[in-house]
Amino acid sequence: MPQMRFKTFRTIFALSVREMSTSKGRAGVGYFWAVADPVLKIIVLAFIFELVLRSPDIGSNFHIFYASGILPYTFFTQTASKVARTINFSRSLLSYPVVTYIDAIAARFVVNAITNIMVYYVVVTGIIYFYDLRLTLNVPAILLAYTMASVLGLGIGTLNCFLFIYLPFWELAWSLMTRPLFILSGILYIYENVPSLLKEYLWYNPLIHVVGASRRGIYSTYDAAYVEPMYVFGIGLICLCIGLFTLNLCVREIVNR
Known about the structure:
Distance between the termini: 32 Å
Strand content: under 5%
Number of helices: 11
Shape: globular
Mean pLDDT: 85
């Protein structure tokens, strides 16, 4: 059993190194863009809304407000996207008995998680120091937000890993369905300021809870009482179980196509 665990760890490590070299590039350009992409989005949003609003819904700094929403949202979307394309990305390697689809999924998930945690630290720390913000970070709340985003992204990504291959139209349909999520996930506003009629519907968007927990971690005065972690974990784990079950039934057929 220890030998099997070591082989699994070694396989995941090798796949992770491959993932880093192919998706991020040997020169580190991918890592630069991983930081630059959310920074550019934050700058653009802050510039636009500073022209029409005196201050964001919480605090006085637009950059940290939008960072607290964009970063966990990006973590989820990238995790779900990377995991969903695991089979196509590692199809040639999955023909070897030593490499399993779970190893491939784990490797992509780990690399993406480490990258986004690094991006969060660099961006948030940079904003705090650049604007000399006096913030008392709630680290457990931030960790909760990222744990929810990771479980949700892993679960939905694993389910889509099966659906993208067996239902070719689903990848385009999923892309179209999720485009409004940037607006509907509370990145540009806080949940409490939404009209009562819309609140009832928005609450069922799990990303509302992820962003709320993230903002609770940034702003010590923000309670985000509506956040329900078990709801998010439930959706993520259900999708993960269904995805693993379906992949386990037909992964060999998928690889040999």
